[in-house]
Amino acid sequence: MSGRPEHQAPPEIFYGEDEARKYSRNTRMMEIQLTMSERAVELLCLPENQPCHLLDLGCGSGLSGETLTEQGHIWTGVDISSAMLGVAKEREVEGDLLLGDLGQGLPFRAGAFDGAISISALQWLEFFKVRYFNNYCLIFHLIDCRLCNADQRSHNPAKRLYIFFSSLYSCLSRGSRAIFQFYPENSSQVELITSQAMKAGFTGGLVVDYPNSTKAKKFFLCLMTGGQQPLPAALGVDSREDAPNHVAFSQKRDRVKQLRSGKAPKKSRDWILEKKERRRRQGKETRDDSKFTGRKRPSHVW
Amino acid sequence: MKLLTHNILTSKCLKGVTVGYPLGIVAKEVKVNEVDFNPEFISRMIQKVDWPALCKAAENLGHTDELPPTVVDDYENNEEFLKKAHHFLMEIEVMNGDLVCPETGRKFPVTDGIPNMLANEDEV
């Protein structure tokens, strides 16, 4: 099975109560979400020092919304997982929350918002690859007949995307933006998403931060309503700017730590001899050392 | 759900609905919170808010005649007016009840402050 969560179950089932709690307690996850939310707000290019009325699409447990509150904005969040929204309520987020399916369209009046952000949600929208439907249908058939929606949802992702983007376009005030941080599966998904957004009237495009770093690379779809405008500059494109270092240098740090600790690095011949000594001291049966101990083995060829 | 959010909610995503605004409120539980007053934000929101819909919502919740029926002139500088608007938009929260589509009568339940706007497959 693919490691991508959106291939495993629809968002309201994947983010059931346990997963929702896990998501909101994982500090590394929270840190990443915080950074991405701050970057998304930056890309919104809102007027300075002005509290705005913003939309958080796929707000989940409110991690991104908290960034909006911190920056002085009033926000409304929409999510399809009631478990995630429940966690948001427990965390007492300031924004108003709505239970809704983005693919059904946004139920808002024209020009209601000054901007919209979406963190790690867009890839769930077109959702639910049909090949998994049969497995889940059998398991969940009796438990949750809303799963039948998933079948219909898989019929026309392009239509759902279009309904979503056109309703978003109308509820944004003229000149405002929508910024989507998401994890594209492949270029045809990006193509589909972008084309539906353009059809709905948006201009803009993809901004890729840290394009040369596998771990730090982040995709932001920047959609604008005010007509053609230049895209904001991506981070980390200039080679002098390093990707956030909590990711890039971890291996180097580990190696240095090992050398300093005075112990032999793992799996080397010295380490093996030391370990055998330890076992002998513990009185465990140990093979005698020979010239073959810790010899180099031919590497696996599959 | 604050009344500010109610003021921008519609049922237009449903099939057969033209405008779907404003949604009626049948409230079973309402909470009043204290929220920091930001006059600048409220002034800007007043431009976007549908004032008659706000008055009707206030009425639905039993607060008849507490809001002036129209936006006063020069409201940006009228602190009393802004404070009243702030109170209704930001401090009154519907915790439990239903939102009602004016065209189809379809109810959207509000549970624990969260309106359920999910439509069934045959409604979109």
Automatic annotation (TrEMBL), chain A:
Domain called 18S rRNA (guanine(1575)-N(7))-methyltransferase Bud23 C-terminal: residue spans: 223-298
Region annotation (Disordered) ranges: 251-302
Superkingdom, natural source: Eukaryota
One BP term from GO: rRNA (guanine-N7)-methylation
Basic residues biased stretches: 293-302
Gene3D superfamilies: Vaccinia Virus protein VP39 (3.40.50.150)
Annotated GO MF terms: rRNA (guanine) methyltransferase activity
Major place of residence: cytoplasm
Catalysis performed (reactions): a guanosine in 18S rRNA + S-adenosyl-L-methionine = an N(7)-methylguanosine in 18S rRNA + S-adenosyl-L-homocysteine
Gene Ontology CC entries for this record: cytoplasm; nucleolus
Domain Methyltransferase type: 55-126
Biased composition (Basic and acidic residues): 267-276, 283-292
TM region(s), chain numbering: none
Cell compartment(s), UniProt: Cytoplasm; Nucleus
Keywords assigned by UniProt, alphabetized: Cytoplasm, Methyltransferase, Nucleus, S-adenosyl-L-methionine, Transferase
InterPro entries: Bud23-like, Bud23_C, Methyltransf_11, SAM-dependent_MTases_sf
Description of how the protein assembles with itself and partners: Heterodimer with TRMT112; this heterodimerization is necessary for the metabolic stability and activity of the catalytic subunit BUD23. Interacts with GRIP1.
Family: Belongs to the class I-like SAM-binding methyltransferase superfamily. BUD23/WBSCR22 family.
Its biological purpose: S-adenosyl-L-methionine-dependent methyltransferase that specifically methylates the N(7) position of a guanine in 18S rRNA. Requires the methyltransferase adapter protein TRM112 for full rRNA methyltransferase activity. Involved in the pre-rRNA processing steps leading to small-subunit rRNA production independently of its RNA-modifying catalytic activity. Important for biogenesis end export of the 40S ribosomal subunit independent on its methyltransferase activity. Locus-specific steroid receptor coactivator.
Protein's UniProt name: 18S rRNA (guanine-N(7))-methyltransferase
Organism, as annotated: Daphnia pulex (Water flea)
Source taxonomy: Eukaryota, Metazoa, Ecdysozoa, Arthropoda, Crustacea
From TrEMBL, chain B:
Keyword NADP set for record: no
UniProt entry keywords in alphabetical sequence: Cytoplasm, Nucleus
Keyword ATP-binding attributed: no
Subcellular localization(s) per the UniProt record: Cytoplasm, Perinuclear region; Nucleus, Nucleoplasm
Domain of life: Eukaryota
GO terms assigned for molecular function: protein heterodimerization activity
Gene3D superfamilies reported for this sequence: 2.20.25.10
Family to which the UniProt record says this protein belongs: Belongs to the TRM112 family.
Record's protein name: Multifunctional methyltransferase subunit TRM112-like protein
Organism the protein comes from: Daphnia pulex
Lineage of source species: Eukaryota, Metazoa, Ecdysozoa, Arthropoda, Crustacea
